[in-house]
Design a protein that fits this description.
six-stranded mixed sheet; about 40% helix; about 270 residues; alpha/beta; 10 helices; binds NADP nicotinamide-adenine-dinucleotide phosphate
Length: about 270
Amino acid sequence: MADRYGVIGHPVAHSKSPWIHAQFARATGEDIAYEAIDAPPEGFVVAVEAFRAAGGKGLNVTLPYKGEAYRYCAGSTARAAAAQAVNTLLLDRERPFGDNTDGVGLVRDLTVNLGRRLQGAQVLLLGAGGAAQGVLAPLAEAGAAGIVVANRTLARAQALAARVPGAAACGFDALAGRAFDLVVNATSAGLSGELPRLPQGLFRPGALAYDMLYGRDTEFLAMARAAGAATRDGLGMLVEQAAESFLVWRGVRPDTRAVLAALRAG
Ligand code: NAP
């Protein structure tokens, strides 16, 4: 019987992860089954335990459960501990163990797929939720010269930035007069068609605006395009974090190019 994996979240019906992991399994010859599990509010731990009791070996965790997944785990990798968020659960051991592949997924999409240099870059990270937590330390480790975390709720930005040496925090208004080489939107504002209240002039010449959301042209990307920045959605990050999870679970890193190209082709 195939080894069982899946993605757990709420809602999760829209998730592309089952399709992505099916492609990875076919390409690598790994015998896995991968399903989507919708866990209702308050139902995360019960759903994970049921999956584990049924022999499930691993789960990806998506909105809104990454923080809860971290607290649920008995142990975690350093990158998950730095993020205090888990997007990859390993369940085929005595006690549940957590990892976080969002950061490496974003950095690989930026540097390998998009050919961007992070060394020396001035980076603005918008948002301080689960996704921002996962990528802040990896962005810093990739060599960014400076990182500012800006969030609607200032205290959350401050708490996040305090965990990474050299990172600074502010509210959106305090960004006036500052410009960046890379602006990553890790807010969920685009999900409701909203745009964080950002000042003009955020983009240096040649800057990239990256929205972690995918599958839609967000207000953020439209604003960035109008300001002359290059733009990219988070589809590449999605595929790269999935490949890293597959590597963690199966010990083999699938090639991502064909999968990403197929998703982009629609
Ligand atoms: P989350 O934990 O719920 O955090 C949401 C963040 O967005 C918070 O910082 C929140 O600010 C901010 N926010 C929400 N509405 C806003 C608005 N109208 N204006 C300004 N800020 C607003 O969500 P998450 O897990 O971090 O996910 C964030 C986004 O990243 C989602 O759209 C998700 O789909 C995407 N994502 C993509 C990938 C990928 O692989 N491409 C991976 C992970 C996440 P407050 O703190 O003030 O509430």
